[in-house]
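Input set for joint prediction.
Command: fold jointly, output tokens.
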Amino acid sequence: MEIAIPLFDRFTALDAVGPYEVLSRIPGATVRFVASEPGPKRTDTRMLAIAADTSLAEAPEPEVLLVPGGPGTRDLMADGPILEWIRHAHGRSQWTTSVCTGSLLLGAAGVLDGLEATSHWLELKTLSRFGARPVERRVVEQGKVITAAGVSAGIDMALTLAARIAGEQVAQAIQLGIEYAPEPPFDAGSTRSAPSQIVELVGAAAN
Amino acid sequence: MEIAIPLFDRFTALDAVGPYEVLSRIPGATVRFVASEPGPKRTDTRMLAIAADTSLAEAPEPEVLLVPGGPGTRDLMADGPILEWIRHAHGRSQWTTSVCTGSLLLGAAGVLDGLEATSHWLELKTLSRFGARPVERRVVEQGKVITAAGVSAGIDMALTLAARIAGEQVAQAIQLGIEYAPEPPFDAGSTRSAPSQIVELVGAAAN
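tokens >
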């Protein structure tokens, strides 16, 4: 099974690498990092570069596409090679998925019209611009389209997807392999649980 | 604050990128990916390459070192540039940390002698070879030395470390920023919770 993850300048690393770590462990799966122009793509922090080994043109019809987010999505909302690639690939895919603000790219490509979808909590409302119905859930499944909330939610989404693709035993074996029994030291990972001053702090820093 | 993450052939991507995603968000922190020879380093699956931008020699005394794991650690257990670098850096560091089998490299460098430590569950016992006391916990703190269990445990460890470095408010803001309110679809992430046939399956595949 061919799984393609498009990269672009200023993507968020964990959006892509969390799901990669899960999906690459599905027996028979190949994960390819693709981009308009192959080569190293630097993340939002500029401190890390991941290689896009393959051009979009070389991977036109993956069985699974997984679109990460990050500040770099803002420069891609006008039609261009990545949106064209998403639109074409979605027409043939078995699964079309996103993490974080990757859902805004799915939306801009026309994939989310009339569907429930999620995104990073700071950009959740933006989804309605694309005819999607924003839903405050960590993973939202709508037929073959699965969207995940911010950054780390991609790991949960990928385990759900692994179970759909290869069965629950395989997904559980992968979960045990990456020892994903999370114990966050704080209960601050969502706007519902975080102290209100933390929510305000992060919201203010984003504007 | 300078944080260095050494990379090597066949490391496990999430071991490094999970903590990077947390630690790079600490105000004033710089995360650098370092290697004996700078350049792209390919992960255990061979499907992903991350750039090591800096040589070990250019980053001899980071304030934080974070050593990821992966099958590639096996080739590094005999003394060599990475163990030498760990030993020297640990002598000056504020924090010396590892994820997954990265703790075996800390052990081989002599850092864990007499300390409690953890590792990927499949390699936990190996720690005793280095004079460490293996502990089946997700994050183990021993003074300035912090070790994390397998792969995804690095995210929990990095949030703990972020709180030590910059305070709980900053750590909570980072947790909310990466929306780390995990909801794994299965309860199979540790040997204590996973179905026994899954534990056997993963154990057998590793041998």
